[in-house]
Amino acid sequence: MSSVPILPTAELHVHIEGTLEPELALRLAVRNRTPLRSTELDDLRRAYSFRDLQSFLDLYYELMAVLQRPEDFVDLADAYLARAAAQGVRHAEVFVDPQAHLARGVPLEVVMEGLGEAFARAEERHGMSARLIACFLRDRDPDEAEALLPRLLPYRGLVIGVGLDSAEVGFPPERFERVFARAADEGLHRVAHAGEEGPPAYVRSALDRLGVERVDHGNRSLEDRDLVARLREEQLPLTVCPLSNVALRTVARLEDHPLPAMLAHGLLATVNSDDPAYFGGYLHDNVTAVTRALGLTAEQRRRLAENSFRASFLPEEVKSRHLDAVAAA
Ligand code: HPA
Ligand code: ZN
């Protein structure tokens, strides 16, 4: 089968901890003497099969145990940046889960030092830019998120915004209204996972109560016509993750994926990898898979690449340069 051409793209929905490939997890487990469920690659790989979001999160939080020192975070980020760059990613706004590391005794400074070092040399080494969006874990107490926010402020420049992730159903966005308002006061960007497993009401709450500028996933918005009209009118971006949706069974088959419907509705949809080490591929692997399963046209793929830069938090003049590069590709 002929290959799908790679376009310059911004990746807006990828969790750095979700780029931990099993090979690197095993190498870091040896380096740090961290016990894992198995020391065999094949055993570990067999665990990568999920029923839903929670069954994935269980493994995701378990394997993070190998991330202990700044150099572990450097190696993790360098591996992601190299793979993303090879798949056309020119700019990445990358999620990190600080509370997941703090909760197991890894200081915020360790995480930021490692990721900051890798990101600082991304341009020179990988020909791309990268920034962080720190996510609050929605299945933990909002007070914990409020305590974290001021600790993120010294890393401004590296950390450009806040997000909301982890188990969705039962943890609606409005619980985090106060910490998102504080983040807005600090001039940070705001995004939230909503409508992955949760209902359209969670997408509305993320918009109305948290003031988010993008919705991560947002698939279930399509169940609510008025919400779709609003997303279109306000051109609120959705960061869609096709291989993730199939792996976590929010979409039965890639052939049933709502991406073409989102584009047909005029929504600012983008394609992203979410947790590429767990879900079977990086950004262009997602583009290739949806192209094959859904028959996306070259025009639709160009639209998705343009959307990714439009939806990014890059300064307007930098967006324009990237859009020119998409046009020239
Ligand atoms: N959804 C919610 N939380 C997450 C995900 C996801 O896909 N990946 C890592 N944390
Ligand atoms: Zn995600």
Tell me what the structure shows.
The chain has helices at 22-32, 41-46, 53-63, 70-86, 98-102, 108-120, 122-126, 142-152, 177-185, 200-208, 225-233, 242-247, 259-264, 276-279, 283-294, 298-310, 316-328; strands at 9-11, 89-96, 129-137, 159-165, 189-194, 214-217, 238-240, 269-271. The protein has 329 residues and is an alpha/beta fold. The chain has an 8-stranded parallel beta sheet with strand order 1-2-3-4-5-6-7-8. α16 runs antiparallel to α17. The longest helix has 17 residues, at 70-86. The model has no long low-confidence stretch (mean pLDDT 98). Bound molecules: hypoxanthine (HPA) and zinc ion. Zinc ion binds at residues 13, 15, 165, 193, 216, 274.
> What is the averaged pLDDT score?
98
- Ligand species: hypoxanthine, zinc ion
Give the CATH level 1 class.
Alpha Beta
* Spatial extent as radius of gyration: 18 Å
Shape: globular
Main sheet makeup: 8 strands, parallel
Q: Identify the CATH architecture.
A: Alpha-Beta Barrel
**Sequence stretches where pLDDT stays below 50 over 5 or more residues:** none
Looking at CATH, the homologous superfamily is: Metal-dependent hydrolases
Q: Output the structural class.
A: alpha/beta
In brief, what are we looking at here?
The protein has 329 residues and is α/β, with parallel strands linked by helices.
Fold blueprint:
Elements: E1 9-11, H1 22-32, H2 41-46, H3 53-63, H4 70-86, E2 89-96, H5 98-102, H6 108-120, H7 122-126, E3 129-137, H8 142-152, E4 159-165, H9 177-185, E5 189-194, H10 200-208, E6 214-217, H11 225-233, E7 238-240, H12 242-247, H13 259-264, E8 269-271, H14 276-279, H15 283-294, H16 298-310, H17 316-328
Parallel strand pairs: 1-2, 2-3, 3-4, 4-5, 5-6, 6-7, 7-8
The structure holds hypoxanthine and zinc ion.
